[in-house]
Amino acid sequence: MADSVLCIDVFKSKVVALLVDVSSKVAVVHKCVAVDIRDQPFEDVVARLVQLTNYSDEACHLSFSPEYFSFRTLSLPFADRKKIEQVLPFELVECSAVEVDSLLTDFVVTNSGPEGAQVLVAMIAREILAEKLSAFMMAGINPDSIGISGVATCLNVVDSLVGDFVLLDFEDPVMSLYLVANGRIVLVRSLLIEENDQPLVRAEDIGRDVLRTLLASQGSLSSSMPLSVFLTGGTAFQGELRDTLLRLFEGDVDVALYSQSEQPLIKVDLEIRNQYAPDVMDRVLARALKKKDLGRDFNFRKEEFKKKKSVKEYRRLILTVAIPLMLACILLVGYQVVQYQKLLGQQDGLRNKIVSVFKETVPGVTRVVNPVQQLQVVNNEIKAVYRAGSSGSGGAHTMIEILTEVSARIPASYKVKVVRFVANFDLVRFKGQTEDFNTVDNIQRVLEESDYFTAVDISSANQSSLGDEVRFELKMKLAR
User: Fold this and answer.
1) What Cα–Cα distance (Å) separates residue 429 from each residue in 237, 379, 418, 437, 474?
2) The domain boundary residue, chosen from 369, 394, 421
3) Do 464 and 403 fall into the same domain?
4) How many beta carbons lie within 10 A of that of residue 280, not counting itself?
5) Using CA atoms, how far apart are residues 374 and 381, in angstroms rounded to an integer?
6) pLDDT at 389 over 60
7) Which of 16, 132, 388, 446 is surrounded by the most beta carbons within 10 Å?
């Protein structure tokens, strides 16, 4: 089921699971299961849970009831999380009844400032967690996170309430107490309630335990009484408990019932509405609805219990990455082909221009194979046959060099047409056409600056009969 999440709570007596569709603003509960855990192997319980929820590969969050954990509150002279993680084992040695290495710990920062931080540390036996998690993995369930049941309910209340409060979550025979201050959980306690058929007696026992706990924890509160108290979970004697709390706290508390399933934008599928038990399943539903924890929640999916991706997840990841990568490669190859074809066209155009220049320069050669190489051969032949300014055996300048010098000296902006260019050992005659007499004078002046010539004279300069051009001839004496 797309965009669905499976949330599981493990208690001492039962395992509860919900399959919730969270793809839209309204969360819809499609499956709800509660399987008794007593007197049967835990692996069978998990297998039964998978069968009843029709679980395939949805996202999964696993939580254990506070009974599985022990909690400690520590004050440290720093607030950096990495430093806290490093010193926790040493801080817990003196206050732990068992070897610290046998416990997996996680913490939340409850208060921080320049002087340091207060942290709430939760610990669970590695052996118990390994046993339970192994059963889930064998059944094909690979949880994304492992948390503490009831914490999600507190955080959901935080998101809709301003101020400190207490959440009392009853799951017979244990009452879990969560104290929240400044939007963070600062205290978690599991209070064992003795069995008694008289609701008033049980309510009195719970009320006195809650009163003693809160009086001992007043330093953790951001404000003094009155305090909000929310009751959730079992409903058998909530009325008696409410009256007892009001009496014991002498009206300094506001007591109200809190039901997660009755909050806005939550719907239970009609097919399972008769199976949904709010007192047992609301805390599981809260985990499916919990927003990003922002460092306020516990997660024991760490160290040797850190999640490893399954084959299905790797396959999904490969497909997610491979398809866009393949499309990018196809586009890149297509772009390279287009660019290559464009370069081939430019190459053919340049080759045609070279051939055209070659034919214009050497019209006597009819077979053009390699114009650059053929032109070099022609140039070498010209050099061998004639060297202007020499006696024919060496020294002075070649015809190509003289042509190059004249071409370089005359600015490209001058409109000059060469009609005749003749040279002997001592003299070069340059006959051409241009626009006006000033251009002829300028050509004479720039050529006189060349080291190739000792003198440059204007032999003639006449305007054409139509008056649109000037015909001229220059006589240039070669330097020895």
Assistant:
1) 125, 21, 11, 18, 6
2) 369
3) yes
4) 17
5) 11
6) no
7) 16
- For 423, other C-beta atoms within 10 Å of its C-beta total 19
Question: Contacts for 274-279 with beta carbons within 8 Å, 24 or more apart?
Answer: 275/32, 276/29, 276/32, 277/32, 277/34, 279/170, 279/232, 279/233, 279/234, 279/235
| pLDDT level of residue 128 (50, 70, 90 thresholds) | very high
pTM above 0.70, yes or no: no
φ/ψ of 385, rounded to 5, equals -80, -40
pLDDT at 316: 64
**What would you measure as the largest C-alpha separation in the chain, in angstroms?**
137
Per residue in 97-125, pLDDT (tens digit) is: 889 899 999 999 988 888 889 999 999 99
The answer to whether the beta carbons of residues 248 and 206 sit under 8 Å apart is no
Domain count, the chain: 3
From CA 177, how far away is CA 188, in angstroms rounded? 6
The DSSP output letter for 102 is: G
HSE-CB of 230 using CA atoms within 13 angstroms: 22
DSSP-derived 3-state class of residue 476: strand
Which structure tokens are listed for 42? Answer: 């835990």
Q: Tell me, yes or no, whether 269 and 137 share the same domain.
A: yes
Q: Please state, in angstroms and rounded to a whole number, the distance separating the CA atoms of residues 17 and 468.
A: 102
Q: Is the pLDDT of residue 2 over 60?
A: no
Per residue in 21-36, pLDDT (tens digit) is 998 889 999 999 999 9
Residue 107 belongs to domain spanning: 4-308
- Tokens (6 digits) for 413: 């902006």
Residues in the chain: 480
Contact assessment for residue 166 and residue 229, using Cβ atoms and an 8 Å cutoff: yes
Q: Cα separations (Å) of 13 from 65, 130, 283, 354? A: 10, 19, 16, 92
Determine the Cα–Cα distance for residues 167 and 257; give it in Å rounded to an integer.
Answer: 10
Helix or strand holding residue 329 (H, E)? helix 311-361
Q: What are phi and psi of 30, to 5 degrees?
A: -100, -30
Alpha helix (H) ranges present in 159-294? Answer: 199-216, 238-248, 278-289
Q: Looking at the predicted structure, is the pLDDT value of residue 394 above 50? A: no
DSSP 370: -
pLDDT one-digit tens code per residue, 416-471: 888 888 888 788 999 999 989 999 999 999 999 998 899 999 999 898 878 788 99
330 plus 233 within the same structural domain: no
